[in-house]
Amino acid sequence: MSSKSTANPAPKPKRPQKSKLPATDVQEFRRLLKEFLSVTDDQGRKWADAKWGVYAFYDYDGEPIYVGQTNEQLRVRLGRHLTNQRTDAAAMRILDLFEVAAVEIWPLWEYESINLRDKKAQAFLDAKRHLDQAEYTAYLNAIENSRFKAILNEKIPPKGDRIDLPASLRRDLITPEIRADRSHPDIRIARRAETISRLAAVARERGEVSEGLRRVLVIQAVRLAYIAAVRLAYAEGRGEPSPEAINVEALTGPLLYEYSDPGGEEVDANDASVDGEAEEPDPDAAD
């Protein structure tokens, strides 16, 4: 006589939350980004809720590495950049997310009511001109504060008058534990070499890429050469070499304006730094 088993079948595995799938260091990065996007100012506004504004990224040395602008909302733009959603900088391998250790934003609250659909309206044109000036000012500040007098922007912002920037918010996006791990020189050298390889592969595979992308390839190579030289000096018990040992501008040409557009008058229709992309941001980053 047969008997039926009364044992319960093994429970069906539960599908994990998407936010739990990334590695621990990526989860921590996104947690700190989410906290950053929730910080409020003295008027109770979330800094990152501003539609118009400028932003900058910094590496593990506090070195400015990238400056951008947006009028689609700061949190949306940052979410696309920093959660590996599609942006030109990420897709073209120009910006390595593992190199970003801190972020700073400058919101332009006075333009919240601007109608983005009426790009011929004087109010929009005035706001856009101010936004361009703010971005160029942040770019100039980044260049001046960079040891190499160069950052990783593929497109140099249009030239404009230098202005007083509004109050900014700056925060780290990595924990002390992650900083201790990722900031080891050998790890950074290997990562930077990998970034250069990927960027060079983009240039090789696509063939027709911007002069700016090729300029960034040179700047990344300079950054790799310097950090490798510092590591060598440390291993040999010598003092660190001076960043001035490398004349970046002699290698890249002008860095305060596009060589092909010294007047800063050209408008790139494919420039995604301002309301350029339709993809939805990562909700985990934008909440």
Automatic annotation (TrEMBL):
<feature type="region of interest" description="Disordered">
    <location>
        <begin position="257"/>
        <end position="287"/>
    </location>
</feature>
<dbReference type="InterPro" id="IPR035901">
    <property type="entry name" value="GIY-YIG_endonuc_sf"/>
</dbReference>
<feature type="region of interest" description="Disordered">
    <location>
        <begin position="1"/>
        <end position="24"/>
    </location>
</feature>
<dbReference type="InterPro" id="IPR000305">
    <property type="entry name" value="GIY-YIG_endonuc"/>
</dbReference>
<feature type="compositionally biased region" description="Acidic residues">
    <location>
        <begin position="263"/>
        <end position="287"/>
    </location>
</feature>
<feature type="domain" description="GIY-YIG">
    <location>
        <begin position="50"/>
        <end position="138"/>
    </location>
</feature>
<protein>
    <submittedName>
        <fullName>GIY-YIG catalytic domain-containing protein</fullName>
    </submittedName>
</protein>
<dbReference type="Pfam" id="PF01541">
    <property type="entry name" value="GIY-YIG"/>
</dbReference>
